[in-house]
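The freezer alarm interrupted the setup, so I double-checked each line after restarting. Inputs confirmed:
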Amino acid sequence: MEITVTVNGAEQQADVEPRVLLADFIRTRLGLTGTHIGCDTTSCGVCTVLLDGTPVKSCTMFAVQADGRTITTVEGLRTNGELSAMQKAFKAEHGLQCGFCTPAMMLVGTHLLENNPEPSEDDVRWAISGNLCRCTGYVNIVKAIQAAAGASAGASATANDISGSAAGASATADDMSVSAAESEGASA
Amino acid sequence: MTTETIHQKFGPAEIGGIGHSVKRAEDDRLIQGAGNYVDDIVLPGMLHMTLLRSPVAHAKIVSIDASAALALDGVVAVLTGEALAGYNLAWMPTLSGDTQAVLATDKVRFQGQEVAAVIAENPYVANDALELIDVEYDALPPLMSPQDALADGAPLIRDDKDGQVDNACYEWEAGDKAATDRAFAQADHVVSLDTHYPRSHPAPLETCGCVADVNPATSHVTVHMTSQAPHAHRTLFAMVTGLPEQNIRIISPDIGGGFGNKVPIYPGYVVATAASLVIGRPVKWIESRTDNLISTGFARDYYMQGELALTSEGRILGLRVNMLSDNGAFYSDAQPTAFRAGLFHIVTGSYDYPAAHVVTKGAYTNKAPGGVAYRCSFRVTEASYLIERLVQTAAYELGIDPAEIRRRNFIQPDQFPYTSPTGFVYDSGDYPAALEMALEMVGYDEVRAEQAAARERGDATQVGIGIASFTEVVGAGKGSEYDIAGLRMFDSAELRVHPTGKAILKLGVRSQGQGHETTFAQIVANELGIPSTDIKVVEGDTDNTPYGLGTYASRSTPVGGAATAVIARKLRDKAAKIAAHLLEAAEDDLEFDAGRFTVRGTPDQSVTIQDVALAAYSNLPDGMEAGLEGVHYYDPPNMTYPFGSYVVVVDLDTETGQWTVRRMVAVDDCGVRINPMIVDGQLHGGLTEGYAMSAMQFITFDEDGNCIGSNFMDYLIPTAWETPRFELGATVTPSPHHPIGAKGVGESATVGSPAAYVNAVIDAVAHLGVRNIDMPVMPSRVWAALQSQAG
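Predicted 3D structure, all chains:
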């Protein structure tokens, strides 16, 4: 079947078998390998892309169903050579470890902030609850998304440090102030 | 060793040495979707492989007919065990000295076992072809527990092995039986606990896979694979295939989480390589999630019986443990050769007593093989769980507070180095300090008072407080005692300082998300004063890195990190000679600090490490070898012993069995912290996986041998919504034998936390008589335990 999709701002035309999954199409036909595949059952969410601005799990959708629609993948987050606030915040807040869930988490976070510019910790946790992470315990993913919200609102990412997840922990609070005080290494 | 309660930062922030929360070098590509995971690799002419797996747990293979599959358009080849046998590849050795079927020839021994492989032009066709392969099975009774497998008259699972007459897999013991019997004879109290640590799976979000690329002209083999141990895998590939090792190159690219799952060699890697060799084109094999969960490296599945001998004051006199493990169809646990149940004999824990005896036994069953140390140093998780659950049980039986009974039995700071009753030499620790910090953070006395009031009132919602004061043993090994398949467990670092003062560090270990590209650069920065951002870290390519045993069992920092510090110091020694030459001063008159050599007493007489690097290639003392490069292989004198105390508070609804974590306080001591930000991140992940195992994550089977937990709808992994909030604390007790005093941290929280969560749940209902609920402590199990007490 002939389809036309707009991916990260560029119109793409392709002839695809009806059974080809959108995730496969994005990865193998378009060569955009930042979209990952982790479970095949819509459970883990690492294949998440934005379809007309809304997060969908591209491993359980056919490419032909995207005909005429607009897709944003992680490769589309950077604009005009500049990393997005979400990408910068994921690095600044150590929001990733192995990086496999990260593209999806950043896309879901981006969508969340478009609809809720100042999300609470619970808002963020609920928004990303369709996306699994095995490395981070979600702590710094939540921090990164909230920091990106702060950055978009004009505050610096680290100044908008969230200690909600560490209420009452003196040692953790110390750690946070240490990492906030140091802007070491290359900041994104 | 002195214990500190703050992180020490070494050197200026702009150099980014030890103790600084340097932002990660690896993030720049990963946040742009520009990582390079195995499934991202596409080679010209590449074919795709899928594996046909057994639908039954135990059956003879009567026949395999692949003719319809072969006739399908786009199918290039179908391989069976019979075909592999022609290359002597139908079986392969395991990491525990057993053999494992690559593709089944005689019978299948677990549901999901590899039976045939389809190689096709694309993965859709390959999957279509699987359904066209006709296999006739003659069913045999499945044995789904080690108890059943060891019962008299049980059918023999491993009839392929000469001399194997039953389903026993191994027996191993540690400690002193006679001394332990004496301790129990003197005891005022004996407290026991029987518990099962259920089968689990590491389930990294990236499944296992490879792209095997055999050059038909040269027969040189390149395998891009999800490997936590690429060098060891290269050697094992050479042994399995008979190919010359210099012609095998293993490349482990970005890895999407490992947690032990990517330590073993799986049949898929071998079959894909054989297929590429036979066909002459690259072959990609990527597991589906179900493939991953039903066939690769499971973890745990230990049935543990523990007994403590105690005085009436609650002093422990001895420990007796009987453990029975379920090893699945092939004994392919990943562990040091001499230790048949890994390092389970660390089970004596953080406590000082003279006698222990540990007897371990394993059984073959009709389950998947591949017992791996899931975020754990070779069965330390099971050991830590048993002793911490036992100590809490003893507290109840003797009427002593669970914190107080620990205080009475802790190994004291002045007792290190401490030789345990099973022979480990603990390097350093301050267990009371970690516990007291955790208790203070949680407000222990206040929560206990709240608990007492709720019990007094008979509230439906009860409060539980669980403590775990764990000790790990990580960083294997000492080469003379620890080896994998005969390869001693050293590790390596090669450091090259370039003329412009930038450097490249090549390692034998392989990160799967732990941040080696950042932390190992920090170790070099600390020693040489070259900014960590000027140091590129390379891992995972066997043609371009020095030999090492890989990353698992929290060994990268204790072993690879030590190798890095040592080689950096060796280069610094050479740099000092060059600096003396440049400054026309005696080497003994030089001071080195933050990347600058200065003539003592004359601060204006100095050269930087960058000046020295250039001179190493342009202006050397007479007779000195050029360059500023070197490699070091580090053989640790001992392992390291991270420790900590965790305290969990839960609220438990006694009418439904539902419980939620109100507080999770984790005080960890992993020695010197290279990058506190990354350490905290490791702890967050481990605390979450510990919660997962205690609350929801396990693999079980029905009586017919069907795997329950074969996808992420049945195998539950906590989302951000269920995951508790964590509060971290730290003490710092350096390892006395490690060059930078670090101990390793990647697994501490997974090792320590399951007992803390479960102890909290039990504590909420202990006053009602409940003493044990096996993990996961799901509401249904809590409710059933309460009903059985009420009845």
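Quick read of the result. The longest strand of chain B covers residues 316-328.
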